[in-house]
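Example record used in the benchmark description.
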Amino acid sequence: MRPLRQFPISTAATAGAVSAVVALAALTAGTSAAAGAAATPAQSAQSEYQAMLKAVGTQGVHFSSSARQSGVTISVHGDTGATTGAQTLMVKNGSLSEHVTALLVGSTGYINANATALHHVIGLTSTQSSKYAGAWLSFPTSNNGLAQLVAGLLNSQVPRELEMTGPFTYGTATSVNGKSVLAIHGSQGTQTGTVPVVLLVPASGTPLPIEEDTNPGTGGGSSAIHGTVSFSSWGEKTTERAPAHSVSLLKLVPGATSGATSTTGG
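Model output (structure tokens):
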């Protein structure tokens, strides 16, 4: 879900950015910091954060995200489900444009990508990338490396995507699309160190997350990670179907474990 998780099978120069982006997820709209003091919260920031995790539980959610680092921009949007989920990843790095659609159906993951992504993100050869561009490639989620392609797409994994560490504090009054929200400040570990994170939840009612901002503002320069995740449609029911035909990615990725399955159908 998020654009910050490690992408271990990535082999290109863009891998560092994708590694910094496959664990954050965000495309924000209509966020503004309101002037003045926030309404006095009924509980501590840490208690509000814990209440948020409890409210999330195992609900489905739609997410959209954007992140940038060192001139690379990444956007992700998708939906989580009880046993299935889907997301689309776009990476822009100069003239390079990479597009990956990922599905999770049970214990099998699927990707459909353009040739640039297959070569630079997945690590296929130029010949393989051209051949399999636009085709569905499948892999078992028991393969830890490839499983990162569909990480965070199950409802049960959503709370983990929202994990951050304290100390927890409240920020200034904020609104999102005209709705008053509480800003819970914490931090998150990345490959390059710890970065500040702000989680926005409704100021009243059920504290289901509306947005998460990683390293907000302009601090840290262009090499720092900046990203936003927007959440909506909490409680949605998502059911994805496996592609009618797919080719085993295990047979194509260099250094993949043995035991690849043959081309699948149905």
